[in-house]
Amino acid sequence: LYLIANRKPNSYMYSSQAIQKNILRLVDKGWDLVIQWIPSHCDVEGNDVVDHAANEGRQLQEVDYPEELDDIYHKYVGKQKSGGNLYGIGKVKLPLLGLLRKKIGNWFWCRHGDRKIDTIMTGLRIGRVSLNKYLSFINLSPTSICPNCSQDVDEDCTHYLLECDRYNIPRQRLATSLHNLGITNMDLTLLLGGAEADCETLKRITEELATYIKATKRFEEP
Question: Which GO terms describe its molecular function (predicted)?
């Protein structure tokens, strides 16, 4: 309501202008428009109890699971498989979106400023990206085999980032850049955001991975 009523809001300026224009357009067409604000939590029965429990949970850093994490993980993967919605998560414990966390504290996250590159990186993290392994799964490729090398293996995230012969030169440049940061072991977890490092190092890793993605030209439009 603040955005709609304020002619010059401090944020979401374009969104507020679009809302205002749409309201005027509907009114001009003869619509009777009523805007109602419903407080999300105010006077909701049980809300105070839930808030109290949530605050207590936030203070609990060590999580006591009634089952082993690996058992929970395998149950999750089994349900994903039965639902036909598995993106390779069963074979690789992805560092952010595919891993059960043992603690609730802050999790450093470094995004890339380029929206397209950031989207590709997110796809690589969850295995839902335009590589033949996933494309064949959704029937957009006749094969899951890598079309760019002679290894006759599935083109998945691991193969694209660490194995494919076609990208040996940009991969070597990536490894050299990481070595200059003091990183000698380049693996999937590290590249996709799961490194135990400070924010500046995570940012540098993200930048180097972006350079690799651009150099391979694998995700460019045909």
Answer: nucleic acid binding
Q: Which domain holds residue 148?
A: 115-216
Cα 189 to Cα 199: distance, rounded to the nearest angstrom: 16
For 78-90, how does the pLDDT look when each residue is reduced to its tens digit (9 = 90+)? 665 554 443 333 3
User: Could you tell me if residue 193 is inside a domain?
Assistant: yes
Task: Confirm if 194 and 96 have CB atoms less than 8 A apart.
Answer: yes
pTM (2 d.p.): 0.55
- Does residue 84 lie within any of the structural domains? no
Number of domains forming the structure of the chain:
1
The answer as to whether 54 is a domain residue is no
Do the domain assignments include residue 43?
no
Helix-strand-coil split of the chain, %, nearest 5: 50, 0, 45
Q: Is the dihedral of CA 214, 199, 94, 106 positive or negative?
A: negative
Amino acid (one-letter) located at 56: E
Tokens of residue 76, six digits: 């999750």
DSSP letter, residue 88: S
* Tens digits of residue pLDDT in 39-61: 555 566 667 777 777 777 777 76
User: Would you state the structure tokens that stand for residue 173, as one six-digit string?
Assistant: 């440049």
